[in-house]
Write a structure and sequence with these properties.
8-stranded parallel β-sheet; 15 helices; 21 strands; 26% helix
């Protein structure tokens, strides 16, 4: 049996920005349900929902206050159950985000911990530690938050006296859970059962590498080894996933775990994909790779080499809710991406970026394994780089003192059609979208691209349909074909060839090959058919 998740095309839905069904300016489950036919016609196999749980939204829902309920911004638990069923009726599987590294400071456990006071058992579910220095005024160690500043915040006790510090590798509103505590493990096992019983087909695990910490929480030190950090990739994390895998495997329906695993080496990454742990994980090395044929080929080779020994399918992704949209990245002088330095102010040529983004989309869909599509990729949306400061909501903006403008630019509500809010909300809705849409997005709506033969949306639909017909179920292998400098060319079994021209001159197509699809118009000359610069073509050679 070929498992569906080994070759799936999975569409990421950032609920808050996908579609607003009730007119309050925020995307919701009703809006998603209305657009399930669109997603089916797009040709994806599954939907991944970023957190829809009850949350104060200090970090866009990744600060969960109740893992067993839906935030009122998005709807109700009944709405979620209906959405899962209706998605299944459309042939779409459903993956939900699980955030186990931390919860919200409004979670009942953390509120109990604050109220219970020093030395209480309620505080043992988190990392409460006394401070260093005179009167404990300094953090317990030197760890830094991913969002900037110290990873520790000191509490004030009920009597007004300074208390211990608690760990938060992200925002202070996101206290880290202590995965050495048996109650934490039992709680999340029950959460898995809760959603599996409601029909979800799997989970995307947030910060999958970060749950376990090195005992004693030692300092990182002035010269840290990125392959040996005390707050990530600790051995105990693998025991957690082995226990979870047993739970998942106890349900029918071929359920799946997908990990968000940001680690510096392929060897570390691959350990999460052993047969008794996670099924797959995001390939961030590919996302960060520049638009360069040699670099891209190197990442493809290293990805296949890392996944092969553990028998896991590779995955390919170009954008998500945390990164700069690839239309913008590919239009820059430096087309690489680094989470530590997003270069949000770098100028971008969106015409060039869209041309490369179309070719990159076809490349990802031709490679063996699974592929992810972030909402709006199929419309060719760029990053919104000029949002006013007072509208920015990403905590990284505040935590960095405005140095890092955060991730809001890739989270702007989608444009669906002409009219108010570009169809994101119902016409006449009393509230504007939670982030403003650029005026020039009117030409990028799904409605505007519906019938355009050369539109992004048409390209995605055609590519996903061909991928399903020609590549699904094939062995997860490829054979490189030498095609000249600045190019990528590989064959898949069954006479399928993918050719990418990232060079500086048009590239002749091989004689006798049948063109299945191209990302850009081909040039017909007396010397033959040419693939333009920054183009991709799928060919039938059999």
């Amino acid at each position: 049996m070929t498992h569906w998740w080994r070759h799936a095309a999975i569409y990421q839905i950032y609920v808050r920005s996908f579609a607003d069904g009730d007119g309050d300016g925020t995307g919701d489950l009703a809006g998603v349900r209305d657009r399930l036919p669109y997603l089916r016609e797009l040709g994806v196999d599954a939907l991944w929902f970023t957190p829809w749980n009850t949350s104060p939204m200090a970090d866009g829902g990744y600060d969960v206050a109740d893992y067993r309920d839906i935030d009122p911004l998005f709807g109700t638990l009944t709405d979620a159950e209906r959405l899962i069923g209706e998605a299944h009726d459309h042939g779409l599987r459903v993956l939900v985000d699980l955030v186990p590294n931390h919860c919200s400071d409004q979670h009942v456990w953390f509120q109990e911990a604050l109220a219970a006071g020093p030395g209480s058992s309620a505080r043992e579910r988190f990392w409460f530690l006394p401070g260093r220095g005179e009167d404990g005024n300094e953090p317990p160690n030197d760890w830094q938050s991913y969002f900037g500043g110290s990873a520790w915040t000191r509490v004030t006790e009920a009597d007004g006296t300074p208390g211990p510090w608690y760990l938060h590798m992200f925002a202070p509103q996101q206290p880290d859970l202590n995965w050495e505590h048996a109650e934490v493990r039992a709680e999340f096992e029950d959460i898995l059962h809760f959603w599996l019983r409601r029909g979800v087909d799997g989970f995307r695990i947030d910060v999958a590498h970060g749950l376990a910490k090195t005992p004693g929480l030692p300092d990182v030190g002035p010269h840290p080894d990125p392959t040996d950090l005390p707050y990530q990739d600790c051995d105990d994390v693998h025991d957690i996933y082995r226990s979870w895998r047993k739970i998942l495997d106890g349900y029918d329906g071929d359920r799946v775990f997908v990990g968000e695993v940001w680690l510096p080496t392929a060897e570390q990454f691959a350990r999460y994909l052993r047969p008794d742990e996670l099924h797959s994980a995001f390939n961030f090395e590919f996302l960060c790779c520049p638009w360069d044929a040699t670099a891209l080929r190197g990442v493809v080779d290293s990805t296949l080499a890392a996944h092969g020994p553990v028998g896991a399918p590779p995955t390919w992704v170009l954008s998500n809710h945390d990164t700069i949209r690839h239309v913008t990245r590919y239009g820059r002088e430096d087309t690489s991406f680094d989470m530590g330095d997003k270069r949000l102010a770098d100028p971008s040529d969106h015409v060039l970026g869209r041309r490369r983004a179309r070719a990159a989309a076809m490349l990802t869909m031709a490679l063996p394994g699974g592929v992810y599509v972030y909402q709006g990729d199929e419309l060719g949306l760029p990053e919104v780089q000029d949002l006013p400061d007072h509208l920015l909501q990403d905590p990284t903006f505040v935590r960095s003192g405005g140095v890092d403008r955060g991730r809001d630019g890739c989270r702007v509500p989608l444009p669906w059609r002409s009219g108010d809010s570009l169809g994101f909300s119902p016409d006449g809705a009393p509230a504007a979208p939670w982030l403003p849409q650029p005026d020039d997005w009117a030409g990028l709506t799904a409605e505007a691209q519906e019938t355009g033969p050369g539109s992004f949306l048409t390209l995605y639909r055609e590519a996903l349909a061909l991928r399903r017909a020609r590549l699904t179920g094939l062995p997860e292998t490829l054979s490189w074909v030498e095609s000249g400098p600045g190019t990528l060319c590989f064959d898949r079994p069954g006479g399928f060839r993918c050719l990418v021209n990232a060079g500086e001159e048009p590239l002749p197509l091989p004689a006798g090959a049948t063109v299945l699809l191209s990302s850009a118009p081909l040039e017909h000359t007396d010397a033959g058919v040419l693939l333009p610069v920054d183009g991709c073509a799928w060919l039938s050679t059999g």
